[in-house]
């Protein structure tokens, strides 16, 4: 076993966390106006009024900044979905809300003014850590709802839970993933209701 | 009522149909090597050894050539799917085959060497006539299979047929549409089986 390191942690000013937040806020604003792909850290530094070196003290790369913005965005979608699920009564209604609200929140954050689409597209294409973590959390939430429905007797219990959850996630994915969602924009009005009805039929005991 | 026109139909040499086929074959070969988007009718004429004017005698635009190639490609996918459905025994198995074979045939035609992806992507983006017709035919085939399963007692009959068919089509679509399929390449191995199992659970009487 390794001994716990006793070397002192270098003292960091209390302002670090605030500076990071400040950079993220300015970068979100800047990227949403000029695009993520086209902007360099130099552009960003100039726009914020910081030196490039100062930004690199807090973020090791443009992608690290993008990842933080992306993670914030995905957390916002997730918290909308969790709130809608918590608010709904029975498990079937929770599942319906999950389809509906995840589509709406994804549309709003990725496509309203195409604000964050650029970053979300890079994140999805390159399968950033923030995306993987988000997908895992959505799958867990889905499993929780399924589990609850199995316990309440609303959902069948013959099919292995993993299998059910994965198949339903595949059905939801075209409306969660921004790269897929961009080609589904003409179906987002009706698809969540039609697909959740199909899924609920598949879950009937 | 209009009287039938008695004006003589202009005589067309019997070679017309053969020339069209020859242009399509050469264009398919050329596009698959150099891409559809980047190639002009002039490039194509030069490569085939025809004059540009001669090609325009048979096709009014590059898109008209692309549409014909695309239609051929979609017909090939469709006939693979129809053969697989015809070969399968019971309606549930027909549905499974439909998911599996449509995904495999789309993958092969759109992505093997990315041969026809370029044309298929334009066709899907611009919603060409050939694509609309293909989608309608696949939806009809799906309805036929569902209808057969309802008659045999394999599938439930409570949900309106239109609603069932549309929801199932939405589940299949990410594996049929080349723009969506390009982002699903890592799930094509398992997804058709997982999704058709889910769909079959949703259809149980």
TrEMBL record, chains A, B:
InterPro entries: Homeodomain-like_sf, HTH-type_TetR-like_transc_reg, HTH_TetR, Tet_transcr_reg_TetR-rel_C_sf, TetR_C_27. It comes from Paraburkholderia podalyriae. Residues 40-59 bind DNA. This is TetR/AcrR family transcriptional regulator. Keywords: DNA-binding, Transcription, Transcription regulation. Pfam families: TetR_C_27 (PF17935), TetR_N (PF00440). Transmembrane segments: none annotated. Residues 17-77 form the HTH tetR-type domain. It comes from the Bacteria.
